[in-house]
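Researcher: Let's do a round of design. I'm pasting the structure tokens now; please hold your answer until I've finished.
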């Protein structure tokens, strides 16, 4: 029997009234092993949609756009790391369409792992990993010089908050700017204190992108002055 697989990932782009100043890429959760296609009605996909609204409200008219990725398949699938491969594809798509804009990756569970894995790409300036699945031995070198927020509910029974805390410590040791937040009574699905999860992630993502825009302007002004 042939295994059903999606032909390609799907990237949903924002409607923009002007140019794109920065992007947030939302990465959903999944399963350890599965090649079943991800449906539009997937709960993992739906779980990320409230973050789009929270970021939009926080960003206002700053030109920050939110992109949603739907993976080809539900699983990470061992060394194939399908979710990370799809995240890298989405980063390439954003750059091809909009140019070299700064990007923050925001992922939940398996999507958090994918976000952390893909963070070494040049346009990625920050990562928000919510209740991430980070097994022991997960690499951290790609996070050097990145701003990272890792948040985990202390009642999570699906992914391990202790492993997230240890991962944050390892990432900090290689030069990442890491903040770890424990969410009191937070569950894996982020249903408890949902507004806290949404606001926390949106604030971090937008602040990082606005700070990056300011840094770029300062660099451009310095270069202009030095060339006079």
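Researcher: That's everything. Go ahead.
Model: Designed sequence:
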């Amino acid at each position: 029997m042939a295994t059903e697989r999606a032909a390609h990932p799907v990237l949903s782009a924002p409607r923009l009234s002007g140019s794109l100043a920065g992007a947030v890429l939302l990465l959903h959760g999944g399963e350890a092993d599965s090649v079943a296609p991800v449906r539009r009605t997937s709960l993992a996909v739906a779980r990320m949609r409230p973050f789009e609204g929270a970021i939009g409200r926080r960003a206002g008219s700053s030109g920050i756009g939110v992109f949603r990725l739907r993976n080809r398949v539900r699983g990470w699938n061992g060394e194939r790391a399908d979710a990370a491969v799809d995240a890298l594809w989405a980063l390439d798509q954003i750059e091809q369409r909009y140019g070299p804009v700064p990007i923050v990756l925001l992922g939940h569970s398996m999507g958090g792992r994918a976000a952390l894995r893909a963070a070494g790409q040049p346009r990625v300036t920050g990562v928000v990993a919510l209740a991430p699945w980070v097994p022991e031995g997960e690499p951290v070198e790609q996070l050097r010089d990145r701003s990272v927020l890792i948040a985990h509910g202390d009642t999570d029974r699906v992914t391990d908050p202790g492993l997230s805390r240890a991962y944050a410590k390892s990432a900090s040791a290689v030069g990442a700017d890491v903040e770890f937040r424990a969410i009191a009574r937070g569950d894996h699905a982020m249903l408890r204190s949902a507004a806290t999860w949404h606001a926390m992630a949106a604030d971090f993502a937008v602040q990082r992108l606005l700070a990056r825009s300011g840094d770029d302007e300062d660099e451009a002004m310095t270069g202009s002055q030095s060339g006079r």
